[in-house]
Amino acid sequence: MRILFTGGTGKAGRHVVPYLLAQGHQVLNVDLAPLEHEGVDNRIADLTDAGQVFDVMQSYANLSELEPGGGVPAFDAVVHFAAVPRILIRPDNETFRNNTLSTYNVIDAAVKNRIPKIIFASSETTYGVCFADGSRKPGYLPVDEEHPTVPEDSYAMSKVCNEATARSFQARSGANIYGLRINNVIEPHEYETLFPQFVANPEQRERNIFAYIDARDLGQMVERCLQTDGLGYQVFNAANAEHSVGLTTQALLDRFYPDVPVMREMGEEETFYSIAKARKLLGFEPIYRWRDLVDLHGV
């Protein structure tokens, strides 16, 4: 596929883009800084400017596309990851403005250019737990895509707004538009630096509902979305299959969630951030397990 990918220079994107290239896709990364990786084309653009978004979506990706003489090729899909990535980086109103306006512009341009597949990054924060003032418990476990989304911070608010925007565009256009509620992204080098702390102090992971997503498995999930058609508008939790700490499911329930309803029997190490929907509809199956990648000797 010929893919326009926004935010490919960010923490998640710099792993997902190479994954997509390895699957044989052509990728144009649109960001405020280039991704220095062999085979990726880059375009610097401000996604809050609708004119720039429309221009990039109707442009050549590189000089070699001039050679056939048949005009500008069409994109087969858009993957929109670009965003202010959390609170406390920019002022709250700027975070909300940037994330909502850029998402509107990207999906609007994609729909008007009749691009049939649009994938956008939503967030675990939509459930209102991650950036809560104080401790916030989920309404039930495991947290699935039907769980209420009632955040109180500007970043998560922008993501909930983006989901409504995407759903509305899909209702009018009929395009396949899939949102990924991405959990805490872990890069390969972070296992040895972060996970011993998580094992020693599991309370550090409560705001992430004790979950994580390996950046490479996130690449797989995007690929599964690209290959799966006909679902209309959908949102999917994106996480790995097990907790990010060394405690069992029951030990975590006893210690952190004694009064939270558990809706079904769960596995001994099963994530509280349910990926059942992605498994069923996309065929997503995470590969990387922190227990296979971390030396816990002495922890």
Automatic annotation (TrEMBL):
Pfam families: Epimerase. Gene3D superfamilies: NAD(P)-binding Rossmann-like Domain (3.40.50.720). Coiled coil: none annotated. It comes from the Bacteria. SUPFAM superfamilies: NAD(P)-binding Rossmann-fold domains (SSF51735). Residues 3-206 form the NAD-dependent epimerase/dehydratase domain. InterPro entries: Epimerase_deHydtase (IPR001509), NAD(P)-bd_dom_sf (IPR036291). This is NAD-dependent epimerase/dehydratase family protein. The lineage of its organism: Bacteria, Pseudomonadati, Pseudomonadota, Alphaproteobacteria, Rhodobacterales.
